[in-house]
Amino acid sequence: MSKYDKFFALAKEAGLEQVELFISESHSLQISLFHGEVDEYKDNNGYSIMARGILNGKCGSANADVWNKEKAAWLVNEIVNNAKVIENDDPIFIFKGSDKYHKVNTFNKELELVSIDQKMKELYTLEKALKEIDPRIVEVAGTEYSQTSEKVTLMNSNGLNLVQKSNYFTFVAQCVAKQGEQTKSGYDFFLDNDFSKFNAQEFAKKIVKITVDQLGGEPCETNKYKAILHPDVVTSLLKAYIGHADAEEVQKHSSLFIDKVGKKIASSKVTIEDKPLTKNVFARWFDDEGVATSNKPIVKNGKLQTYLYNLTTAAKDGVETTGNGFGGGSKRGIGSAFLSLKPGKKSLDELFEMVGNGVYITDVSGLHAGLNPQSGNFSLQSTGFMIENGKKGKPLDLITVGGNLLDIFKDVLEVGNDVTVSPSGVSAESVLIKKIAVSGK
Amino acid sequence: MISKKIAIDVLNESLATGADYAEIFYEDSHSHGVTIENGKVETTSSNSLCGVGLRLLKNNQCVYGYTNDLSKKGLFALASSLSKSFHDERLVTVTKLDMIRCKNRSPIKRSYDDVPVEEKIALIREGIDEINSLNDPRIVRTFGVFGDNYRFVAVFNSKGKWFKRVSEFGRMVFQVIAANQNGFETGFEGPGAQQGIEYFRTEKVNPKKTARKAAETALKMLTAAECPSGKMPVVIGNGWGGVLFHESCGHPLEASAVSKGLSCFSENKIGDYIASPVVSAVDDSTIPNEWGSIDIDDEGNLGTKRLLIKNGKLNDYMIDDLNGRRMNREGNGACRRQNYRYIPTSRMSNTYICNGKNTPEDIIKATKLGLYAVSFNGGSVDPTTGEFNFGCSEAYIIRDGKICEPVKGATLIGKGSEILKKIDMVANDLDLAQGMCGASSGSIRTNVGQPTLRVSEVTVGGRGGELK
C-alpha cells in the first residue's frame, strides 16, 4: 500500500484515463557567515507534488506541497477542471517506461556524514582567508554553505515507478575590493557532492583574484576585437544557443535552427553534447516524463545532429523522444540535464598567444534583459581584460559586448582545454572567436 | 490555520534556549494560471501552497526553518530543532497574543475564486482576437496568459502580537513573436493589480489595448536598425522606465545592503546630494489596489510611504527589524518574502520617481541627438558598486527634438550614483508598471515607476556603430 493509492483511486472514479505524480522530498541546510558570526541558519524539509492526468485526451495539472486525503481530492478535482478547458490537440502521453535505464548514482552517502562542525570550520577558514589574502579586500560580503538532498519519485497509472536520490553542497562567497574611489565586487560558487574536494584556501584565492583583478579597470575604445571568452561567458551563451534545438520552438516557428538538422550551423571546432549520464551531481537517468536519458551530440564538428524532443514533440515529428522532457506543468517542457562543449587541445596561454591583440571577456551580466533569446542578438554589460602582445593586459570596466549567437558560434577559431563545470549544469572551456563588438569609450 | 494556543506554545518552545525574538509565519495560498497559445488553450494549472516558516533571532543572528507538517507535533519538532542553535537561558516568555488590526486598502469586488475559468479565457481571447485582426503574416506566435493568486498569511510573534492578511492578485500577459527575413522580435505587455477581475475591464487596462500594444512593439522592433553605441543623452519613458531606478537605486537603499555597509548609499550619506535636485523618489506600500502594496509587512509593521530621496538628498531606506538592529532603526514596514520557504528581509513595494515640472514633449524637444528608451526587458545591478545594465525592449533615436527611427539591441550601462546626478529634466506624466523582483527573500510583486525623464549622458551598448 502506498499513501498515494487514494489519489489513483479518486482519479479513476473521476473518469481520468491516466494519471501521474511527480514527487520531490528534500532536506536542505543553509549557513551563512557575516563578520565572523553565523548570520543566517536555515534548516528545511521540503515537499512538493506535481500531479497531472488525462481526460478525453486532454491533460490537466495541479501542484501542492502537503499530502493528505483532502489534498488528494483537491488535486483530482483541479486536474479534471483544468483538462476540460484545454483546446490544444497535441498528443499527450503518460509513459509506460523505457526498455532499459542506465542508472547513475547521484547520492553520496559520505556527504550526509559530514558534521556541522566540519562545515562551520570550512566556512570560518574561507571567511578568514578572504579577508587576509589581499589588503585591498575591504569587506567579505558573505560566505555561505548550503547542502541539499532530494528524492524524486515519478509514479503513474501505467505502473511506472522511478526513484532517483541525489545530494550536493555549495560554497558561495562574495568580497569587495577598493582602490582609490573604485569599488569592485567578485564572487564564485563551488558545487560538488564530495566534501573532500573543497579547499577553502584555494577557493578564497580564486575569489580574491577575480575581485582585485578588476581594480583599475576602464572602458576600452569602441571597436570590433578578436576575443577570448571565459568558460562562464561561453556557458551563458551556450545555454541560450542550444535553446534553439528545442523541438517545440522549431515546430512553432520560433527557432533559429529550423531546417538545419544535418547542416552546418557553427564552426567545425564546435561539438556540443547532451550528457545526462555523466557521473556528476547533474546526472539524470530518466527525464520528467520517465523516459530513459542518453548521451548524444547535438552539434558535431559544427553540424546540427538533432533537435531535443519530449514525447509530445517527438510524436508530432514522427521520431523517437530524445529523453529531454524536463520541467513541470501539464505539458512537460524540453531541457537538458548537462550540456558539454567538447574541449580542444590549446591551453589558455596558447589562446592568448594566438590572439596577439584583442580582448578577454571574463564576465557578462544581465542576460535576461540584454540577450534576446528569439533573435539571438545580445548586448551585455561585461568585464574583462585587454590582450596585448599575447598576454593578459589592463582590466576593462563599463563595457558592453554585442553580437548574435549564430555568428559567435560560427566565428569560433579554437576551443581551449580548460574544462570548467558551472553550477548551472554546463561544462565549457575558453573559446577564441574571430571578432566581437565592444562598446566602451 | 494554527490556533493561538498552539502558536503560544510553539513560540515558547522556540525561545527556550535564549532567542530574543521568535515568529511563526503561516501561509495558505493558491493560484491558477491559463495560457492561450496561437489562439488555443494550451495549459492550465492550479497550485496550492501551505506551510509554516519559523524565525528565531538573537542579536544579529537569524535561524529559520519551514515545514509542511502543520500538526502540533510537526511544529514542535521544528521549534525544538531550530532552538538548538542557541545555548543560553530563556529571555522571553509569551503569555498572550493581541491582534494587530490594519485597514484593508485593496478591496476586491469579486474574488478570483468566484470567476469561472471560462471568463478568464474569454478575457484573454479578446486580446488574441485583436492581434489576429491585424492580419499581419509577420506575427508567428502569440501567447496570452491569465494568472491569479489568493494569499492568506497569519503571523504570530514573541512581542505578543498576531495578525492576518488576505490579498488577491491578478495579472494578464500578452506576448507576441514577429518574424521577417532578419529574424525574430518580441513584444510584451503584462498589467496586474491587487484587485479583482474588474481591473482588466477599464479604459486604461483592457485586453484589446494591451494585446495590440504588445503586437505593435514586436512589429515595430522588426523594422528597427541596430542601436548605435557610445555615450549619449537618453530620454527614458514613463512607467516601465522606472526599472532603471528600481535596480540602480532601489536595491542599494534596502536595509539588507545598507546595514552591512554593502551599499553605495551608506548611512553616512543621509542628507547628502545623491541625485540631481530635480529628483525626489518614494517607496509607497499604501497605494490602494496596487501590485506592490502591503497593508502590514511580514513582521507586523504597518505599510508606509517612505520618502527615499528628497530634492536630490538621501532621506530614508526600506528597513526590516533585523537589519534595523544593525542600523539602530526600527523596521518601517518593508519586510517581505515570496512565501513561507524564504527568510524575510527589507524589500521594495511601489517605488517611483516623483513628478517634475516639465512635459514629456518639452523633454523630447530639448534633445538634439540622443536615445529615447521607451521600455526595458529588465536589468540587473550590483548593489555594492551600483553598476547596472538594462536592455531596451523599445527605443528610438531623437533627432532635432523629434522622435525618429526605431532601434533595437540597446543596453544602457553605468553606475546608479552617477546616473542619478545626471538626471536633468523630469516630466509630469508619472505612471507605474508591474514587475516581479527577485532577491534573497524570493520573487515578490513590485511596481516600478517614473515620469518621462532625461539623463544627460549614459553609456549605450549596441551594434549599430557611432550615433550620427
Description:
- The complex is a heterodimer of chains A (441) and B (468).
- Chain A is α+β, with helices and mostly antiparallel strands and 441 residues long.
- Chain A folds into 2 domains: 5-211, PmbA/TldD superfamily (PmbA/TldD fold, 2-Layer Sandwich); 217-441, no CATH class.
- Chain A has 11 helices and 20 strands.
- In chain A, the strands form 4 sheets. Chain A has a 6-stranded antiparallel β-sheet with strand order 3-2-1-4-5-6. A 6-stranded mixed β-sheet of chain A has the order 10-9-8-13-19-18, with helices on one face.
- Chain B is of the alpha+beta class.
- Chain B has a domain at 230-461.
- Helix content of chain B is 19%, strand content 41%.
- Chain B is built from 9 helices and 24 strands.
- In chain B, the strands form 4 sheets. In chain B, strands 1, 2, 3, 4, 5, 6, 7 and 8 form an 8-stranded mixed β-sheet that branches. In chain B, strands 13-12-11-16-23-22 form a 6-stranded mixed β-sheet, covered by helices on one side. In chain B, strands 10-17-18-20-24 form a 5-stranded mixed beta barrel.
- In chain B, strand 17 and strand 18 form a beta hairpin.
- In chain B, helix 3 packs across helix 4 (207-222).
- The relative contact order of chain B is 0.14.
- Chains A and B meet through strand 2, strand 3, helix 2, strand 6 and helix 10 of A and strand 2, strand 3, helix 3, strand 7 and strand 17 of B.
- Strand 3 of chain A pairs parallel with strand 2 (40-58) of chain B, so a sheet runs across the interface.
Quick overview of this protein structure:
Chain A has about 450 residues and is of the alpha+beta class. Chain A has helices spanning about 5-15, 70-85, 110-115, 115-130, 200-210, 230-240, 245-250, 310-315, 350-355, 365-370, 405-410, and strands at about 20-35, 35-55, 60-65, 135-155, 160-180, 180-190, 225-230, 270-275, 295-300, 305, 325, 335, 340, 360-365, 375-390, 390-405, 410-415, 420, 425-430, 430-440.
